[in-house]
Amino acid sequence: xxxxxxxxxxxxxxxxxxxxASKTVIAQNINLDLSEGKLIALIGTNGIGKSTxxxxxxxxxxxxxxxxxxxxxxISTYSQKELSEHISVVLTEKLPPSNLSVxxxxxxxxxxxxxxxxxxxxxxxxxxxxxxxxxxxxxLASKKYFQLSDGQFQKVMIARALAQDTPIILLDEPTTxxxxxxxxxxxxxxxxLASTTGKCVLFxxxxxxxxxxFCDEIIVMTSHQTLKDSxxxxxxxxxxxQIFENESVRFDKENRKFIFD
Length: 261
Fold this sequence. Notes:
Blueprint: E1 6-18, E2 23-35, E3 39-43, H1 50-57, E4 65-70, E5 73-74, H2 80-84, E6 87-90, H3 102-107, H4 122-134, H5 150-163, E7 168-172, H6 180-197, E8 200-204, H7 208-214, E9 217-221, E10 226-229, H8 231-236, E11 249-252, E12 257-260
Parallel strand pairs: 3-8, 3-9, 6-7, 7-8
Antiparallel strand pairs: 1-2, 1-4, 4-5, 9-10, 11-12
Helix pairs in contact: 4-5
């Protein structure tokens, strides 16, 4: 039985979009607890609501019903500054062209704490150095970020989130543009960070088979339900067969991979 402390609670949550005339429900009846020190994947088919769920947690979208609680307090009552001190985000969008070095890019993670001039204190610099070291990219600090490979750049963005020093890190498809070797590298890194720093690391992914190997827990979104469990239980309970809702795609328990008939 885990003694991990719950950080985020989703209660009777319905997510989707509102217009002035109507609302579109994408997923409903979501009840989840996310705990510290866990690597948690969010999986499901395209359009099932993964990004909308992340946006709702981040308060970019308002719940259609129900609540998201951060440390027991409704997340909508937090100021943007307070949220930025609790949740850091790694998105897949490319950055606008600039001449920033790796160190400067990672240092942007300290923005919630710096003064209005953006000056780094000794503590800020220490957090940046620690983040670079945790992700093993200290040697890249002086490089311009546009000189990096996709794999290196993804590690820099993770380091920026670490420098932000939040108990929760959310990542949207962090392995999308990476080859298999770099995908595995990122999964290993996220697993290590969750276990060594005690952070709750939640990320959406289409790399389901890798998620089964590395994650402590997996949130599965289907058209019928959203549930969270360990990879072992999800496999044993045949939940993964419900993801694609297609008779030609099934999950092979023994080999822990999807089979296409």
